[in-house]
Automatic annotation (TrEMBL):
InterPro entries: START-like_dom_sf, START_2. This is START-like domain-containing protein. It comes from the Bacteria. SUPFAM superfamilies: Bet v1-like. The lineage of its organism: Bacteria, Pseudomonadati, Bacteroidota, Flavobacteriia, Flavobacteriales. Pfam families: START_2. Residues 1-125 form the START-like domain.
Amino acid sequence: MSDKIKYEIEFVIQSSPQLLYQYLSTPSGLSEWFADNVNSRGELFEFIWDGAEEEAKLLKKKNDDFVRFAWVDNEDDSFFELKIIVDEITKDVSLFITDFAEEDELDEAKMLWENQVSDLKSILGSK
C-alpha cells in the first residue's frame, strides 16, 4: 500500500456557521449533499452512495466549528475533516477540508470535493 498524501482545500460559503455546521455534522444534513443517505449509531456514521456503503467513525467535533471522521476500513491514520473558518474582519465563512488520497488519485479526490461542495452551496443558496 502506498502512502496517502494529506491535502487541504478551501471553499468560501455564504452561510452562517451555525447553519453550515448542521450540514456537516448531522446525518440528515450530510445526506443532502455528501451522500445519497447517511445513518448514524452513536459515533458510527454509515454513508451510502448508489447502494455502496462506507462506515466512518466520528473522531472529534466542536459545535459550529468542525467535524472529523475516519473511514472504518482504513488501515492508516488518514481522516477527513470539515472545518468552518470565519474571517475576523470580513466575517466571510469558509469551509476548509482536510483529506488524504493516493498520489495518483489526488486530482480526482479534489474534484469530488468540489462537486460535493457545489451541491452544498446550491442547497444553502450560496454562490
